Amino acid sequence: MRWVCAAAVVLAGCSATQDASPSGQVQRPEYLGVRTELLDGDLVNFKVALRGTDTPEAVEKYAECAAAQYALIRGYGFARLVRTNVTEEGGTWAADAVYTISPDLPRGLVTIDAVVTVADCGASGIPTV
What we know:
Residues 1-20 form the signal peptide. Keywords: Signal. It comes from Loktanella atrilutea. The chain is of the alpha+beta class. The protein is built from 2 helices and 7 strands. Strands 3-4-6-5-7 form a 5-stranded antiparallel beta sheet. Strand 1 and strand 2 (12-17) form a beta hairpin. The radius of gyration is 16 Å and the shape is globular.
């Protein structure tokens, strides 16, 4: 998916579009699974991978979706990103992401509301845990 932005004098907007392959067909990511590891109490590591995209944003979003679902499974409503390392090899993107999960909105800049995020992931076709 790539973001296409258009600006006018009074109005500006962005929309998400699927990249088309050379044959004109829309490319959809192939989600290759999630590995979850509880590191310590509320600190959780998510390793996810996918193919079929040209940019790292899709794999980062996949990790976020997994973290949101995991938080809900554990009875929590929020997660906060600690760090994400992304790699690409042979067309496969991988993310190694660490999140904290919590029942209350955590401090920090990159926090997610688990209920809202899981709903958004479902609507976008991104699998969760």
